[in-house]
Each structure stands twice: as structure tokens, then as C-alpha cells.
Amino acid sequence: MERTALVHYHEIGLKGRNRGDFERRLEGNLRRASAGLTDGRTRRIASRVLVPVTDPARAEELLAAVARIPGVSYLGYAIECDRTPEAIEAAALAVVAEEVTRRTEAGEPPPATFAVEARRSATDYAESSLEINRRVGAAIERETGLGVDLSAPGLVCRIEVVQARAYVYARRVEGPGGLPVGASGTVVALMSAGIDSPVAAWRVMKRGAVVVAVHFSGRPQTPAHSEHYALELARVLDRSGGMARLYTVPFGDVQRQIALDAPEDLRVLLYRRFMVRVAEAIAHRERARALVTGESLGQVASQTLDNIAVVDAVATMPVLRPLIGSDKQEITDEARAIGTFELSTTADDDCCTLFMPRRPATHATLAEAVDAEAGLDVDALVEQALAGVTHVDLSRAPKRRRAL
Ligand code: ATP
Ligand code: MG
To answer: Among the four 129, 168, 213, 371, which has the fewest Cβ within 10 Å?
Structure first.
């Protein structure tokens, strides 16, 4: 029997030309995500994308890869069959038995009840959805002994009759939703090896942005450990197909200069202002349209409204802060869900702990920051930081554009 991942996406807001673009991008991204895991060709049919599962031994890997792609609302691990009553019924019995076994093997309680939910996108199909539900439901009841429960079924067998074929599944895997990567342009994400900024980068990727990550390390004043974690984090995020590059900026000497010449309590703010300047230079090179940071209002001293304003004042492009209204717990849960939490919590210190003030200013003013920078050669320090930049290309690396 032919197996396929039947991918659904949200259609809300998809009108006119946008829709074709969305679908083409999603299909292309799914093709890329499934390359090497299937010999089949992805296809689009009636508001769905099909990713054929040709190697049963790698089915789990393929489903997981597909379910991480932005734009995917959910997928069904389906049997594709002829749209005859006999074929649909046989497929339904097979997927129900398979799903019961899978749950049992996973240590989940086996379902006691079920429901059938049929949909017809093919208007020339003789039976109505209700008739399909009744007929296939009776067969499942007879063969498995499961009871029917339409309001809170333990298992749902879904049947979709689309064009000339039927797709039947009892296993549904949720995707992230959002928009296909590439639909929203490119952003530069300032990514430490902490918990927050990888989640922030993920949020914009999920909204269709290609992400260029920039990591500042304490090198040469500290060892390069955080750089390793930043790269691992970038690779985890790239499983969703949206990372272009990771730039690493050795920032220790710039911090040292700031620590020597500027008031102690303003150091952190000045570090951030320089990070923004360096990140913008990279953003221009990458034709990125915005910066992304992982700040959450009031979470730490540097994240008060006053201090955010002081940092923002050096930016000439929008600074997106997708986590601004999120609590640490929500951010932590999301980090676990996307697979970055463990790396973020084992990562060594990045440049942030280098030359930390004992008492950082929580309500600095722009005038104070500008004053403190008057004694620094700002342009030279930015140039110095940029001179040490290295990068690693990830899956969305632009083919012809040279890195900084
Ligand atoms: P995170 O968990 O992302 O490290 P944080 O709670 O430690 O964030 P801050 O240290 O105030 O917050 O940093 C605020 C934001 O500045 C980070 O979310 C990130 O976007 C950026 N940033 C901080 N340190 C670095 C770094 N070493 N490299 C790149 N970006 C950084
Ligand atoms: Mg941090």
C-alpha cells in the first residue's frame, strides 16, 4: 500500500496571488526537508501537499522532518488508495490497527473508542461524507471491537477523497503553523547561546523569515566555547529549513576597550549598542530588513524600557523582539519544544559575563550613553569587530552572495 504524509496548511488569509506563492514555497521547503528520506516526489493537490513515504524504515524521521517545517499546520500519515469503498475500508482498518499498535508500543493507553471523519474534495464521488462515515465506522466497529464515540473519540480515522484518490489516516502529527520560510524576507538575529534568543529566532522563522544569526563571543579575552554552542543551536533551528548563515564575532577586545574607557554601570548597554551596530553592518551585506533579539520586558536589568530605548537609538532598521511579552516559563517551554533548551542550558558563558559591572544601570538615558561613547572611537571599534568575523553557511545560504 502506498504511504504518504498528507500535509495540511492554514488557508486563512491566503487569497489571490499570495496563495500560489505560499503553496509553491511550502512545497519547495518540504521537498528540501524530505530530500534523502524519500525517493518520491512531493506534489500539490487541492490545498494539500503530499510527501510520499517510500522507505518505511525512515518513516518516523520523515514525519518528524516534515512536522518541523513552518507553514505546516498538521500532517496525516496516510495510506493512499483507490477511491473504491473496498479500498477505503481496507485502508481504514489497516491504519486503525497500526495506530493502536503504535500507541501501545509507545506506552500510551490504547484507545477504547473511535470516530470516522470523511471529507470529499471530489464532487463527483457518489457517497456523501456521512455515508462514508457510517459504512467505514461499521466496519471498524465490527473488526476491532472499538466503540463509536463522536464527541470525544479516543482515535479518529480520517478519510479524504481528493480528485481521483483517497487518503486514509489515523495518525495526525501537529506542525508549527506559520508561513513558509522565504515568504517574509531575511532578518539578522542576535543569537547568544542562552535560552531566549534561539526561541526569538525561531519565532520569526516560523513567520516566514530566513534567519542570518550573529553570535558575539568573548574571544580573545575568553575561550571560544560559546561559539560551538551557537553553531549547534543554529543547526537545530536549521532543521526547520530557515537558517542561512551563522556569523561569529570575536567581541572580547571591544568589550575590554569599553570596560577601560566607559563608566562601569553603562558597560552592558554599550556592549549592546555595539552589537547592534555590528549586526546592522552584517544585515546590510545580507540584505536583511530587520534585527531580532530575545529580550523580554523587565526580565533582567538590561531589558527595562529605558534601556531598550537607549539600545534602539543606534539602530536604523527595525529591531524585532518577538519575546517581549513572554514569561520565562513560556520561553523555556518553547525552547524545549523546538529542541534548543538542552544546548542553551549546557552552553558556557558567552561574552556577556565578561567585564560585567557589579551594578548595571537599569534606567540609563540616551545622553549618558552618548556621553560615555564620546571617549571611544566607535567606528574603529565596529571595524575592528567586523575584521574578525567568520561565518558558517547553513541550508538557506544564498548561492551567490558573498559573506562579509
Ligand atoms: P538570551 O537568553 O538570548 O541570552 P538574555 O536573557 O541573556 O537573552 P541579555 O543578555 O539581556 O538577555 O541579551 C539580550 C539580547 O541581546 C539577547 O536575547 C540576544 O538577542 C542579544 N545578545 C546578548 N548576548 C549576545 C551574544 N553573545 N551574541 C549575540 N546576541 C546576544
Ligand atoms: Mg544571555
So the answer is: 371
